[in-house]
Design brief:
Length: about 325
């Protein structure tokens, strides 16, 4: 498994918000949903997208944009159009003065807008939960990234457009996976285009030595890795590995390994039946005490505190944390 696949393997879309918007001028929306990651794909016509204090960028059919929250942004038929619609957290939509628009603008299954014969059609997919493992991905992206239709192969978009209006059994799962595929295709294109500005873990994977070491860390975090054992697996000296890793990745191998293990732990701790001891075993710590010590040192809170805060942020009942009470926290 490569670096990108590893980072996406844990926090996949689960009940993502997906919508087909059908709009004819004049129209303008301010997006205040503060979602961690949103993908906008243009199917027909054009739109202008901009951060609240940023320059507007024109999107045309086939273009896609990634917007990283929690920043607010606007999308409209023309850069100067006054907002008529506000999208709030939880995907609630209203007029600027607060009048609800959900029923008024409903046009069918996952379809919404002001015209059934619209000049502009776009698909929106929103990841509504920020998984801890994906933090490296989110931090590597600009707040707004636009990829033109000529820059990548987004063959999944027509399939997503076809499936988004269906309402059969298991449809939510189908749409989640299609959204994941689109995100992966976009990230590949974006990082390949970024060149030297791509994150260290992405550039490092192309190096035969560091790429192999990253694979070992990503795929086997539970192993008792040391610089010496990683160097032996890669066929280089400890000093050579340490120097090469720091140059490409920007930090020592053991620091990177600790960060990956704790990111995995943070995500796993939010699963319904998680225990600190069980998570510790999966991510390479000898017991719950060792994981808790490292977690507190790096993240400034205990695993149980992290779990409670994460569930509250996602609007989930905190009684799920009862599974951790029997463990060291």
């Amino acid at each position: 498994m490569d670096a990108l696949a590893s980072l996406l393997n844990g926090p996949r879309a689960q009940g993502a918000f997906l919508l087909r918007s059908m709009l004819s001028p004049p129209w303008s929306m301010r997006i205040h949903d503060e979602a961690p990651l949103t993908i906008v794909s243009m199917v027909r016509g054009h739109a202008w997208i901009a951060l609240d204090r940023g320059e507007a960028i024109r999107l045309t059919a086939g273009d896609v944009a990634i917007v990283r929250g929690p920043d607010h942004y606007r999308i409209s038929d023309e850069p100067g159009s006054q907002p008529q619609i506000v999208i709030h957290p939880g995907q609630r939509c209203s007029t600027p003065d607060g009048r609800d628009l959900a029923k008024e603008m409903a046009l069918g299954v996952r379809t919404w807008g002001n015209s059934a014969d619209a000049e502009t059609i776009m698909l929106t997919g929103t990841y509504q939960m920020a998984g801890e493992v994906s933090r490296s991905l989110l931090e590597a992206l600009p707040t707004l990234a636009v990829i033109r239709h000529s820059e990548g192969d987004f063959a999944v978009i027509p399939l997503l457009a076809d499936e988004i209006v269906k309402d059969g059994p298991g449809q939510d799962a189908v749409l989640d996976r299609l959204l994941d595929l689109l995100l992966i295709a976009m990230l590949r294109t974006w990082f390949a285009r970024s060149g030297s500005d791509a994150p260290g873990w992405y550039r490092g994977y192309r190096d035969p030595v560091i790429g192999h070491v990253l694979s070992l860390i990503y795929n086997n975090p539970e192993q008792p890795w040391t610089v010496a054992s990683l160097a032996a697996e890669a066929g280089v000296s400890r000093a050579s590995l340490a120097r090469r890793f720091a140059e490409l990745i920007g930090e020592p191998p053991m620091t990177f390994l600790t960060g990956w293990r704790l990111a995995l732990a943070a995500d796993l701790l939010c699963e319904p039946d998680a225990t600190v001891g069980g998570v510790a075993e999966k991510v390479g710590y000898g017991d719950a005490f060792a994981l808790s010590t490292a977690f507190k040192r790096v993240r400034g809170m205990s695993p149980r505190e992290h779990r409670t805060r994460a569930l509250r942020r996602e609007g989930v009942g905190v009684d799920g944390s009862r599974h951790l009470l029997a463990d060291h926290n």
